[in-house]
Amino acid sequence: MVRKKTGTFLVLLVLLFVGSALVIKLNDTMFAKVPTVNHIELTQTSQDLWVKIAKSDAIFLAVLTVPEATINQAVKNDQHSYVNIPANISEHLKGKPKDYPANIRHYTKDNFYRVTNNHLFAMHGKSVIIFAVMAQGEYYFTRLENKSLQITDPLQIDKIKSEIIRQKTITNNWIPNKQLPLYDRVAELIEIASKSGKEAYSFRQLENLGTGAVPAIIAQLDNRRRLNHRYITLKNHSPDRFEAFRHYSPKLMVDALTAILSQLTGQSFGTIYNGATDEKRTNIINGWRVYAMTHPDFENLRASSGN
């Protein structure tokens, strides 16, 4: 009787060991060692994919009904506007589901950052993956050119789901790293900016700190104090600029800090420089947190100490 119980116990131990090894192997292969936030590995995630996901408020699978005649008429007459692209959504991968079916708002004039009309026509009636942002309750294609609309591919869907899990792990375990270089100086300038009449000085000083301050700014980005002076001017460093300065009207501290981050990095995870909803702000803060914990430039300067 004792031998039987001992034998059963040993079998259970073996099964438990094999099961644990399998789980560890799956985690290493599928989720790119997600649980350890301090050491992000992109073994299963291309540089392109994590950016697309971080920039998007919603990602879903759908079949589009493209009003080709309406778009062609707008192009022919050179009278452009937004049109609704009906989307029969089958699955949401990221974001809160909207009512079904949904519409994607598309501007009829081609632009370097938009989905082109010809690419949209080619996707008509096909099962596609859509990367979208939300604005005023409407879906718009994320500004990723044609990369925000692609044919459904099971392998790509698995990679997207794994990367979404990785990014959620980062944002759900976020703890600001107060040991970062320039953390105290950034905190000081943010405090100065909260005082009436000192905003312009503080924001200029933050910009002057340069890219070395980016992790420290991101670590303190979720600051929703209302600004007394809702105006910020930053130098325009764009090579194709038509004006020397960019002007913004941020309502909260986070709005202004986001403008400064975009200025320093050339990156954007959505526009809140002139105000936004709390939900939009949260999405953009999360995008910057993923950036700080993923971009190779900040390998040794992670903005979060979460695990």
User: Gap between N and C termini, in Å?
Assistant: 46 Å
Structural class by sheet pairing and helices: alpha+beta
* Gross morphology: globular
Q: How much of the sequence is in beta strands?
A: 15-25%
What percent of the residues sit in helical stretches (DSSP H or I)? 40-55%
* Rg computed from alpha carbons, rounded to a whole number of angstroms: 23 Å
* Number of structurally distinct domains: 2
Order of helices and strands: HHEHEEHEEEHHHHEEHH
Task: List key phrases describing it.
disordered N terminus, OB fold (Dihydrolipoamide Acetyltransferase, E2P), 8 strands, 2 domains, two-stranded antiparallel ribbon, five-stranded mixed beta barrel, 307 residues, single chain, alpha+beta
